[in-house]
Design a protein that fits this description.
mainly alpha; globular; 429 residues
Length: 429
């Protein structure tokens, strides 16, 4: 790697600094993370990156940005986002989320409420691939149980939030999984297997803790009814993805099932199904724009030597895979703290993480798992993240009061650090 001076390296990285100032600093000053749309922050930093790059004509700089925004991996990711958005919204409109909540809660023993709610959040988020969707579905039920039993409301809210990140970290249709696997160029099934090795001990330990502290607590709170047929699209999507079917084929199959079942049970007619799919695709619009802008921004930074500079500085004192994996974890954690969005964090550092992995021989499946798990850990504990803000709003409590009860997000951060330090799982290390 060629030596890059601090002045040149910092200038190459300055578009990322502009983005952080535009989004993080301005939002903190304004006291509201919704004041500055993240798309606007990316757009301004991208314009700055193109304008301040030197040594090439403007047209060529724009071409470099466009190339980064439209790589084959990037376009594949965008197609998956489109299908995932269409599937998720059409499944929601036909009642699949309500059916999944009802099935999970009715299947759990009423005497094991705390571990039961945690399991429900885990299974629902694994099925629907969204932490916010899980929180919206389960928090009202958790609040009712807390009021009925006298259980601490922040504790119940923390259980749901923690469980919601279990599924997002592992789901085949979650944004973070799509981003992590595509930026590291590995199969979803393979990343899933590595993730299971890393996070399952944490999940089992937290389940044990909830069983211990909640033993004997019962609730008479009524659980929702079950529509078993509505669960089928989620079951098929998870099963086919685990068996290794191409993710686009899996989502297409799931989408077709939502149409057949939804029209059959009267949730919508043919045109209603089309409308539902369209709304889901539009709902992915911001994420698609962010993905393309982040890809273009990173390519400009790479062209100017910023990626090489970061790698040289962060890896100057490390030797081997352990240090490389720790660097990847640190990068995604810092960016997630700044952006309060785990998918954006993965997209922002994914290219750098892949370069580090290739240079130090880190397995792409392990690097994808580290990116996803650490970003979920950080996103799960920051009180200004969308998940905690949503949960706190629904439960009508301060988001900071939930943080001490976020056992699972803290646990997956700890086990990931241990997995890096002790080179676990051995097969992928």
């Amino acid at each position: 790697m060629n030596h890059i001076s601090n002045k040149k390296g910092l200038l190459a990285l300055s578009p990322l600094i502009v983005f952080i100032v535009m989004y993080l600093v301005t939002s903190i000053i304004a006291g509201d993370f919704k004041k500055i749309p993240i798309t606007v922050a990316f757009m301004i930093s991208s314009m700055y990156a193109i304008a301040t790059s030197t040594g090439k004509p403007l047209v060529e700089r724009i071409n470099v940005f466009s190339k980064g925004a439209s790589t084959s991996n990037m376009m594949l990711m965008l197609w998956i986002f489109v299908l995932a958005g269409a599937f998720a919204n059409s499944a929601k409109q036909m009642g699949s989320i309500d059916a999944m909540v009802g099935f999970t809660l009715n299947a759990l023993p009423s005497t094991l409420l705390l571990p039961g709610i945690f399991l429900a959040a885990c299974l629902i988020s694994l099925s629907i691939g969204t932490s916010v969707g899980t929180i919206v579905a389960l928090i009202p039920i958790a609040v009712g149980i807390a009021q009925n039993t006298g259980i601490s409301l922040p504790l119940m809210t923390g259980i749901v939030v923690g469980g919601s990140f279990f599924g997002v970290n592992l789901s085949f249709i979650s944004d973070t999984t799509v981003a992590a696997t595509n930026t590291q160029d590995c199969r979803m099934k393979d990343k899933f297997l590595v993730n299971i090795y890393i996070v399952m001990p944490a999940a089992l330990a937290i389940l044990g803790i909830y069983t211990f502290i909640g033993f004997g607590i019962e609730s008479s709170h009524s659980m929702p009814s079950i529509q078993y047929l509505n669960i089928l699209p989620y079951v098929v999507v998870i099963a086919m993805a685990v068996f290794g079917m191409n993710v686009m084929a899996v989502l297409t199959l799931g989408l077709a099932m939502t149409g057949i079942i939804g029209i059959w049970n009267g949730a919508y007619d043919l045109f209603g199904w089309f409308q539902s799919m369209g709304q889901g695709i539009v709902g992915m619009g911001e994420l698609i724009i962010i993905t393309m802008l982040a890809g273009g921004l990173l390519e400009i930074i790479r062209m100017n030597g910023g990626v090489d500079y970061v790698i040289s500085k962060l890896t100057a004192r490390i030797n081997g895979k352990r240090g490389a994996e720790g660097t990847i974890a640190l990068l995604v954690a810092l960016v997630d703290l700044c952006t309060a969005n785990n998918t954006v964090a993965i997209l922002t550092v994914g290219g750098i993480a892949k370069d580090i992995s290739q240079r130090y021989g880190v397995d792409s499946r392990k690097s994808a798992s580290i990116l996803d798990t650490i970003s979920c850990c950080i996103q799960g504990i920051i009180p200004y993240g969308a998940q905690l803000l949503m949960a706190a709003g629904l439960a009508q409590i301060n988001p900071a009061h939930i943080v001490p009860y976020l056992y699972y997000p803290f646990a997956i951060g700890i086990v990931t650090i241990l997995a890096i330090f002790f080179r676990f799982p051995k097969k992928y290390s």
